[in-house]
Amino acid sequence: VMLSTLPAIGQDVPDAARSKGSPAEGEKAVEFASPELARLDIFIGPWSVTESHFNPRGEQIATAKGTEDITWILDHRAIRRAYSTAPGETIFKANGTLTWNDAEKKYHGVWFDNVSTAGPTTATGTWDDETHTMLFYVESSGREGSTVRYRVVEKFTDPQTRMATTYLIDGGNLVKRM
What we know:
By secondary structure, the chain is mostly beta strands. The chain has two helices and eleven strands; from the N terminus they run βααββββββββββ. Helices cover 5% and strands 54% of the residues. The longest helix is centred in the N-terminal third of the chain and has 5 residues, at 35-39.
C-alpha cells in the first residue's frame, strides 16, 4: 500500500493536519507521555492511499484508491486511523487505534473493519529509527476460528510518503498479499 500526504488538486488540508513538529504561533507545544508516543507523530495527517493486491503466486490482481486520516486521540496517548478504499463497488472502511505499551516496550493496536465478521484484528509493533520502519505482527480470527497472522512493514521513504507491505504468515513462509 502506497500512502502519501500530498493532497489531491483542489483538496484543502486542515492546518492541524499540516503541521508536524513545531507548534503554530500562539499554540502550546504538545507534551507526550513518552518518546515512543512522540514518534507516532510522523503518522499524523491525511494520506492518499494506493493499494495493490496480490494472489498467492505474487501476481498483482487488483488495485484500489482511498484515504487514511490519522489523528491524535486521548490527550496524545494514542492515534486513531480511519481508512477507506473502494476496490470496486464495495467501499472498504476501517478504524484502528495504536499506542505504546511501556511495560512490554512495544506498540499495540486494534483494527475493526466493515468486512470482517470475527471481531478485531490486533497488532504488536516495533519501530526502527535507523530505517524509519514500523514492523507489525498482526492477528485476526479466520474462518472456523483459526488464527490468521500477518507481518506488516510500514516504511517511511520521506515525511510525505510511506509504503506498507502486508505478508500472510503461512507456516514459515511469508506470502505478499498487499
